[in-house]
Structure formats: structure tokens, C-alpha cells
Amino acid sequence: MTVSTESTTDVLIIGAGPSGLAVAYWMAQYGINARIIDKRSTKIFRGHADGLRGRTLELLDSMGITQRILQEGYHAAGLKYWRPDGNGGLKRAGQLRSTIWKSSPHRMALLSQGRIERFFLDVIRDSSSIDVERGVMGESLTYDESLEHDSQAYPITIKLRTLSEEEATPIPNPGTTPYRPARDDLEDLAPKRKHNVGTIETVRAKYLIGCDGAHSWTRKQLNIPFEGSHTDHIWGVMDVVPITDFPDIRWPSSIDSPHGHLLVITRENNVVRFYVPLQEEDEISPSFDRSTVTLDMLRERVKSIMSPFSFDFKICHWWAAYQVGRRLAPAVNKGRMYLVGDAVHTHSPKIGLGMNMSIQDGFNLGWKLALVVKEMAPPSILGTYKSERHQLAKMLLEFDQKWAAFFLKQKKKQDQLELQGLPEANPEDIQAMQDVFRENEMFAEGHVSFYKASLIVDKDSTAVAKHLTAGERFPQALICKQADGQPWWTSRLLNSDGRFRLLLLVGDCRLEDQKSRILALNGGLLALQKRFTPPKQKLDSVIEVKAIHSAPLDDVELSDFPPVLRQFDETTGWDYTKVWSDSECFWDEQCKGNAYEIWGVDRSRGAMVALRPDQYIGWIGELDDVAGVTKYFEGFLHEPRPEAVL
Amino acid sequence: MTVSTESTTDVLIIGAGPSGLAVAYWMAQYGINARIIDKRSTKIFRGHADGLRGRTLELLDSMGITQRILQEGYHAAGLKYWRPDGNGGLKRAGQLRSTIWKSSPHRMALLSQGRIERFFLDVIRDSSSIDVERGVMGESLTYDESLEHDSQAYPITIKLRTLSEEEATPIPNPGTTPYRPARDDLEDLAPKRKHNVGTIETVRAKYLIGCDGAHSWTRKQLNIPFEGSHTDHIWGVMDVVPITDFPDIRWPSSIDSPHGHLLVITRENNVVRFYVPLQEEDEISPSFDRSTVTLDMLRERVKSIMSPFSFDFKICHWWAAYQVGRRLAPAVNKGRMYLVGDAVHTHSPKIGLGMNMSIQDGFNLGWKLALVVKEMAPPSILGTYKSERHQLAKMLLEFDQKWAAFFLKQKKKQDQLELQGLPEANPEDIQAMQDVFRENEMFAEGHVSFYKASLIVDKDSTAVAKHLTAGERFPQALICKQADGQPWWTSRLLNSDGRFRLLLLVGDCRLEDQKSRILALNGGLLALQKRFTPPKQKLDSVIEVKAIHSAPLDDVELSDFPPVLRQFDETTGWDYTKVWSDSECFWDEQCKGNAYEIWGVDRSRGAMVALRPDQYIGWIGELDDVAGVTKYFEGFLHEPRPEAVL
Ligand SMILES: Cc1cc2nc3c(=O)[nH]c(=O)nc-3n(C[C@H](O)[C@H](O)[C@H](O)COP(=O)(O)OP(=O)(O)OC[C@H]3O[C@@H](n4cnc5c(N)ncnc54)[C@H](O)[C@@H]3O)c2cc1C
Ligand SMILES: Cc1cc2nc3c(=O)[nH]c(=O)nc-3n(C[C@H](O)[C@H](O)[C@H](O)COP(=O)(O)OP(=O)(O)OC[C@H]3O[C@@H](n4cnc5c(N)ncnc54)[C@H](O)[C@@H]3O)c2cc1C
Q1: Which domain holds residue B569?
Q2: Which pLDDT score is estimated for A646?
Q3: Is the domain of A376 the same as that of A484?
Q4: A111 CA → ligand 1 middle, Å
């Protein structure tokens, strides 16, 4: 017997992979009435993606997650290449070194996707009652376009079915070793179902977010095509504890041998991931049937590629034959139904960006959606989700293609050489590879995003901050809290709590001139905050103002700053978190007092920067340009009705 | 009706405060059959101690806990003094800066004791099935001396009673604000009892460890006196969110005003702790009845001391009138029954060392006890618990006395001055305070310990390591793992897993001479490991050998090192964790390649150091002195019978 129930929700998220969890994170932060479902009966514990790039780590830091990743994961900073030595063997032919650590404390980290999902689930639970409902799937989806422009209406109707254990359990994990989950994963080994098996729940929603991966059910329902390559790459992937005398087994390595190509990725503890291409993309007709791939087949391939070094393993935590094409959905939404992450774009695992793009997609859409649902901003800001993320997805696929084409070219050249005898690595080829890497590093790390001018990105920039660009991330620096001297990375202090931030780079606040400029800001900024803050909320709950001065900590008193920078609360007193100093910290040598230089801002005169809740730069201007920044916010923030009573 | 049950355990720990948890940590690491009970129905959530010193953080790092403390806590690096300004007001008179960060990455952290207990409970649960049994108390204790020398016997008989909720619940927490526990504390809000209320369990134990605090029931059972001061200090302590315009409210501060003395301790989030002395120790007759102290009394005292600055609060998380004398138990054990932590020593909270000493006591005793229970070492090593920790407790009390006397003198001087009008701070007095502080800083931070020569500390040192001293902690440095380049602090890599460590500071392993020296070590060290490893265990499970060379990472191959440094396991392959490099790391500027300089070891020729499981230095010698180090281990390690079959 099928039981039926009915309910409404403001936001329904389908799929609790990295992208769905990133959207859910924002729903939790903004206190949105939202739900997130997943067809699988449990979270992921083993396998899947494992690479987190610089920008992803920065935003995870703003969520309070990164320190857990750094503690558990492997920190990567380079890649070693191994090439034929001309005598049938292999030799180290070069090393690619990331230079990212110079512009961010966060370099690549490698850790199982299951752990990353763990950390997301924890922060979501810490701040809300939202939790993933598992073993639940959409059955049908209808959309009433006539309701689209009524913000209070529920144009989406979706029937959700609670699956049986069988339906909800994916093909058993093919690892050969029994899984010993981390203690904090135990409670999620067998999550409770909300409804009994077979229950059909009809949910009416204001917004639907499809985060259901490459084979997205939602995308199919929306009739959005998935365009791209005709054949798929097939990669064998395995997470094993290798038994080998290969010297760089604990360094990320790229091995090209006469027997094929291999990507070796160092991971937490003693795990190493091997990526073995089984079908390259120039192969028009399928050379492999994925279902015929076995773990022993992968073992043998790695053995022959790694020879003359020995290779074997007894422990395998996970393996898969991973089949993926380079595909892109031309649209990211239909009315109020959106697609995020792998549902929009897929590409080869070679560039290790899928999880990063997916998290960043969800991170980009989530806060905008929350503002719209709370009627703090017009639905039109949701258009920037496409203009910002879809072009990046395109670039991602181009990068993937370029990278793959480069390797194909190399491979052909090598095949050619092999016909003439035992080939040796060519330094020029190595250089060529380094060049491709360097050219794309900033993009791959997510340190450039090319977000276009829009409602929420004002590109009419001045020259006051030479190294800041509206539409890009705010570059990280280590600065000290004025009130207590604690050195914090900006990624941590500009935490993702849903607020816009106005950074007053107030310059040298010891100078009399500068002092007056700072004091003169107070009225205008308070007025700005008042206009956009709903009644009964704290003045800094929509737009927070923070100051970073360039004077030494000890030369400055917090009381020098105007009230907007140390708001008073009857219960908790003054706010001590708003004034920061770009100066050296006597007990932390990493804290150099060089933030102004990083940002290209004059240490005396300063500048003003508006940051979006995702820490992307929305607006840059002179320190006094209250009118300018007010105009920026007027462009997309509603004034609450009735006006704030404060 | 009273139900009775009977059982045996190898180790019974009474009291699950910091010292009991530190002992339990080791029991978990060594897989000892141990139990830990506490009379309280729950763990601590609020209040109590909050200061963790450098050495404590180092050892917590070796347990994998420190990163959680750093994320949640406030990091202290100094103290500001406020003194009368001569006009009835207060002025900043100086700042005391810790210099500890130069010799350790770990400087003082401030965080509620409840969180620290949380982290202990987590690591204990991660590695064992030991868990605190709450609401249980000893009723009677008997000891059969005739069994003392039989290692298999249970000379201790203790009757444990399961308490009613009423008996087990301490006087309600006097905080004025409802407590919102951290999510990871939720499961411990109402722990399950093992037995029904009233059950009497008769436990026979091989060892009993009394960690039951200043009013130790165990100490009383053992008839060990608690000697020391006749009158107690009484301190008012409160954890509040202050509403004040005092400029340094977010810096640890010491305020001396004509109205009294105040210690202000910055804490996590926006909490500040205030220590208000209510009865100084020169007062012979009690000036305060602790039970008459109220929160409002403390509020008023702080108000007057802080004036002319304003002070008040609405949120109080915890407060107490803390009564403590300077006392020391002359003995730390009776047969196989030991006392640890506050059960042995108490002192004023002014120097903030109680929790640190208690953790370090438990940390000192725990591994020795485990070795004895496992019959890997003779019971005589337990004697070093007293010789090492009791003299430190004495020094602690002397330091406390010196510190207190200094303040009393200052106070008297000040009282004198006040008779003559409004006093002003005297720079000489400030300097005198700085001198006392500096003189004792290394001791207070736990960076010097003065452990004497003993079975486990061989002081017949050579000059090969100028800055290392047997019986002291191993100084921290940041070094790189040869296999994967990860930079780790020694406090993390020398983790507290119960093993002894032989550090081969192999010097410059590129030199041919040095290479031969290293290779020549292999046989002797393998023989050493074999002698002391029980059958069927991994060769490195009792004594682990690690090498730290002084050459650049890229100039060295792991395969250059002999088998003792990369032991092979049939399931997991080679061990990649044993060889480290003291060289710069291109992506971590803190990693400077200066470890050899820190240790005072010649970069070419190296040295050898044996570390105890608690990372204290047991022996120092020439790199080749296998005979010497073998003799060191022969001094206290049993050879397993039957001999290791490997
Ligand atoms: C072997 C492998 C290696 C990879 N390596 C990397 C890497 O190194 N770096 C990197 O960045 N990326 C990597 N990726 C890609 C990465 O895993 C994906 O890009 C990323 O997980 C996409 O996130 P997502 O949330 O969009 O989709 P997914 O992670 O696929 O999550 C989709 C979720 O939706 C659920 N779902 C699906 N259909 C429905 C439905 N109808 N109803 C309800 N729920 C549904 C699924 O159960 C799943 O939990 C790898 C992927 C694989 C498989
Ligand atoms: C207000 C305050 C401030 C302090 N500030 C600091 C500071 O800043 N820094 C610092 O280092 N130290 C400080 N201390 C001291 C510190 O709390 C103690 O030194 C430390 O907790 C001692 O640890 P312990 O495990 O030996 O004893 P305790 O923490 O007292 O633990 C004893 C445990 O035994 C249990 N117990 C008691 N009797 C029995 C029994 N008969 N049967 C079973 N269980 C029993 C108790 O319930 C308790 O859990 C402070 C203490 C207080 C109260």
C-alpha cells in the first residue's frame, strides 16, 4: 500500500553530493525553509573525488572546515614526471611546482570525498535543522509557469518516493578490504528514513535545485540537453595501499611509459590513487566495455606501466571504471528550477576539478537564492548564476580539451619515436607541459574567475586598489585583530555567514587627515546599513562594515574608530571583531604586515571594497565614496518594508 | 535493594578530570584492560580551568588534539599591566611578552576545560572501548600487601556504588545564561549508567590511580596527608561577556588599582574570565566565608577595580568562589595505588598551571604504568613517577609562593603609597615583575622539567647534541618527510602511540663516510628491536627508529637508507614515514631547515637520541653508539619470553 503525504518547502535540493551540500550550507546560514534529499541510503564513505584546489579551500575556510581537511589530508604542491629513459626503463624527467602558496595559505589538499561531505554535514547540522533525507527520489515533476512571478507561490510540484533499501543501495562498494569508518561517520552509517518505504510525498516548492550529478534526473525532467563528446573517456581508478619500489610513490606523479600513461595521486595515510586511462578520446569506436573492467585488469596495467619498478597491492579501499564525456548543458535553469555541478558539466578526471567546480557552483548560487527567497533581493540576481558559472564551465571544458589534446599530441609523438627504437624523454616536451600548466594554474586553482559586470559586480573601478578586481576573489592576507592581536587569514575572518561586507581599508589611521576621513564615514555607512536591515535585526546583519588599518597595532586604540566599527549591543557589549591591523605580529612570523601591498592599496590613503557574501569583490572605490557604494547596494538590495525600526 | 556484582580490571582510574583522562589516554594507546570512573553524572561543560601552556599543547599535539584547541581557543602571547595613573585613574604601565613562540609553535591557548575534556574523550574513544563510567564512586578500599609482588595478582579491592542522579549531580551550574552545548558534546549530556542506582560492584584491580582532585577520596583512603598552608586563598572567578570601555578587555591583563587586584583572561568567542582575589594569603583569620560570595559581589568588585572604566555584564556562563590552599602530598603512592594531579598538589590559580601540571602528571605516569601492566618493564620504573613529578610539584608551589609574595610586597608598598595620596605606577616595579616572569617562564611553560637521572634517563651525555639534555623535552622543529615532502612539527610526528623512539640524526647522508656509518647501523638496530619486541608484533612496535638527515630533500633517495628505516610489510608495503629531512620546504616558509641548529647537532656527523614514549629525552650519544643505546634499553626493558619470532 502506498501512503501519500503532502507538504510545502521554500527550497528543495535534489542530490547531496558536493554541490547539493554547498547549496544546503547557505540555506542553513540564512535560516531558509529548505530540504535536501538523496536517492542513496547513506552518504559516501569511500572513493569518488579527492582533490581540493586553492580557492575551494579558501571558501571551505570561510565555512570553518579547512582546518579539518588540512589535518587529515595530504598537501600537494607539485607533480613529478616520469618518462622513458631510453633504455626501457623510467626516469624522473622533471617536477612541476605549484606557485599558488605565494598568494594563498591554501594549496591543494587531497582527501576522500566522503570526509569532505562529512565536514559539510557537520557545519550544516551545527547551524540549522536541515539534514539530508536519504533513500528518497523524485518520481514526477510539474511546473506551473503562471505562478513564476508570485514570490509567495509554489510553482513546483514534485512527487517524492521513499525507496526500499535495495533501490537506495548503490552497487556494493568494490573495495577488497572491509571498511572501517571514522568514528564521526558512524551515526551516518544507517540514517533513519523520514517516511516508510513506498511513501509518496507530494512536495510543493518555491525553488528546486537539481544537484543530482552527471546523470541528473532533474536535467532530464527540465528537458535540458547535455551536449558534447560522442564517445566517453574511460578511466580505471583505484585507491590502494601500494607495495612498490617506485621512488616517488608518495608524490603526485605523472608517468608516461611505452606501456601507457598513469596518474598517481598521493592521499591521506598510506593510500595512493591511480588513474589509468583505458579509452582515450581520439578512439572513435569504443575500445572498452566498462562493465568488463576488473580490478585485476587495472593492477596489471599499472604493473606494466610502472615496470621496471615493482607494483602490487593487497589493500584496495575502492576502485571504479569511471566513464565520463566532456559535456555541458546549454542552460542552467528553467524558471525557478536550477541545475548545479555535474548536472551541468562533466569532463575528464585528469584535471581534477569536478568536485571543486561543483562546490563553487553551489556556493555561487546558494546565497543568491537565499536572498531572493527572503525577498531581500530581486529574482533577477539569480541570472548572475548563469553568467558567472556557465562561462567558467565552458572554460573548464576548453581547458580539459587543451590539456587532453596536449597529451594526445605527446602520445602520438612518442608512438612515432617508439617505432624507431627505445625513446628517451625530451626536455622540450617537459617544458611544453610546464608551460601549459603554468598558463592555466591560476584558473585551475580558482584564483581567477572572470565574473562579468552585473547587478552585483560593478566594474567601474578606480585605481585605488591596483591588485583588486571587481568580479574576482578577494586575495588572502594574514592580519591582526585590533582588540586582541590574534592573527587571522582573511579567508577565516570574512566568514561565510551570509552577510555582505564593506571593507574600509582605512590606511594609516594615525594621520590626522585620515582620522577625519574615517570619522566622516560613520553617518553615511550607518544610514546605508539602516536602509537595508530588516526591523529588529542587528544593524550589521545584512551589511557588515569592517576596517583594516595599516598602522602598528600598539599605536592605535579601538576607541579611535567611529560607532559603525564597534557597534554596541545591550547584552554583549561592544563588538571587538570589526577593526583589524595590517601589521607585523610579534609571535607569528607569517604575519608580515603586507596585506596592503598584496591588495595594491596605498598605506596612507586606503580604499573601500564591497564584498559579496561569497567573498567575491562587488565594488571598489575611494575610502570616502559612500555615495558610490550606496549606489552599488541600491542596485540589487531591497529596502525592507516596513522600514527598519532600530 | 542493593544489587552486588564482582569484576576484575588491571587498572582502575578514579576521577575523569584532566589527570584521569591523561592516564586513560595511555591505557587506550597500549590496549590495557582499564576502567575510569567519576562520581559526577556528566562531564564538565562550563567553567573550571582554561589555560594550556606550551608544553601541554605540545603533548596534546602528539595526541592529535592541538589543532582543535587552536581553532576554538584564544591564543595568548602576553599580559598587559594596568596600574594607577596618579590621578585616581588607571593607565597601561607595560606589557609582558612571552618569548616561548621562538622555541615552539605552541604558545599558550585559552579554552574552557570542558572542551579540552571533550577532545580527550574523543581520542580515547577513537582508539579503545574505554569510556568514562559516570555517577560511580568508591565506598571502601582495601589493599593486600602480600600480593604486591605478584604481577598477576589483584591486591586492590574497591567497592563501587552507582549513585542516584541527585548524588551524582553537582550543585547546579551557577551561570545565569542557559547553556547551549556544542553539538559534539550532546551525546555526553546524559550518559548512560553501567549499573542501576545503588548497585555495589566489587572490583579487584592490579593498580588503582586516584585522579580525584583536591579533595581526593583516594588520598584519604591511603592515609596520605595534604600538607601546606593553613588558610586558603579565596578567589572569585567568573566567565562573562563583559560590557565595558576598558581598552584592553580582549587582552590578558593584570590590573592593580587602589581598589584591589584583578586578573583578566581573554577567552574563546567573546568570553572573558575575571579572577578576583577575595582573601589574600597573608590574612591569617578568614576574611571571607566562601558560601556568602555572590555573583553580584564579584560584579561590584570588578566595577570598582576597573573604574573609571565602566563595567557590567548580562551574560555569565559560569562563576565560582574558588577556595584553594597551597598544599602538597608528601607521597604519591602506597604500593600499587597512585595519586595524580590535584590529588597531589594544589596552589593558587594566579599562575594558571593546575590543569597543565595535572595533565602532565597523568601523561608521565600513564605510559610507565602500561609498560608495567604489560610486563614489558619492571615495576621499579614507576618510582620515576615520583622522582620526576613530585619535585616539579614542589617547584610549582615554590614558584606560586614566590609569585604571590612578590605581589604581596607590591601591594604593601602600594598601600603605603596610598596613605601619601594618589599613587602612580612605578616603572621599577613593572621591571621587577617582568624579571620574575622571565626567570620562571621556561618552567611555567613546561619547557624545562629537570627530570633526574634514573633507570629511564641516562645523563652520561656526550657533547654531540649541545642543546639537548637527557631528562628534558625534545625541542620542537619543523621538518619534511622524505617520501612526500610534507612539513610536520616534531610534536606531531613523534606522536604518543606508546613507542620508544630512536632518532638517528644521520647528518649529511650525501657524504660517503656518513653513508657507510648509516648502513653500518642497520644490523645492530634491528637486533635491538628484535630483542625487545614480543612475538608476532611488528619490529617497530616497541622501539621505532626514525632518521632525520640534514641534506636537501631532492638530493636524497629513500632507497639510500637501510631496511631498519623502511621496514617492509607484506600487506602495506614499505614504510614511508621513517626518514625525514631537515631542509627548507619550498611551499612553507616556516620550514627553514634549522632543526640541527635548534638541537645543537653537527650537520655533517649527526648524533643519536632515544626518546621515551612521552617524548622526553632518555639517552643521547654518537650516531654509531648502538652499544650505548642498547645498554640504555637493557636498563629497563624486559626481553619478551618466548623470544620474538619474526
Ligand atoms: C572516480 C572519480 C574521481 C573523481 N576525481 C575528482 C577529483 O580528483 N577532483 C574533483 O574535483 N572531482 C573529481 N571527480 C568528480 C566529482 O566527483 C564530481 O565532479 C562531483 O562529485 C560532482 O558533485 P555533484 O554534487 O555535482 O554531483 P555528485 O557528487 O554526483 O552528487 C550527486 C548526488 O545526487 C544523488 N542523486 C542522483 N540522482 C538522484 C535522484 N534522481 N534523486 C535523488 N538524488 C539523486 C546521488 O546519489 C549523489 O549523492 C571524480 C569523480 C569520480 C567518480
Ligand atoms: C575556577 C578554577 C580555575 C582554574 N584555572 C586554572 C587555569 O587557568 N589553569 C590551570 O592549569 N588550572 C586551573 N585550575 C585548576 C585545574 O582545574 C585543576 O588543577 C585540574 O582540573 C586538576 O585536574 P585533576 O584531574 O587532577 O582534578 P579535577 O579536575 O578536580 O578532577 C577530579 C575528578 O574526579 C572526580 N571525583 C572526585 N572525587 C571522586 C570520587 N570520590 N569518586 C569518583 N570521582 C571523583 C571529580 O568529579 C572530577 O571529575 C582551575 C581550577 C578552578 C576550579
Answers
A1: 478-634
A2: 44
A3: no
A4: 15
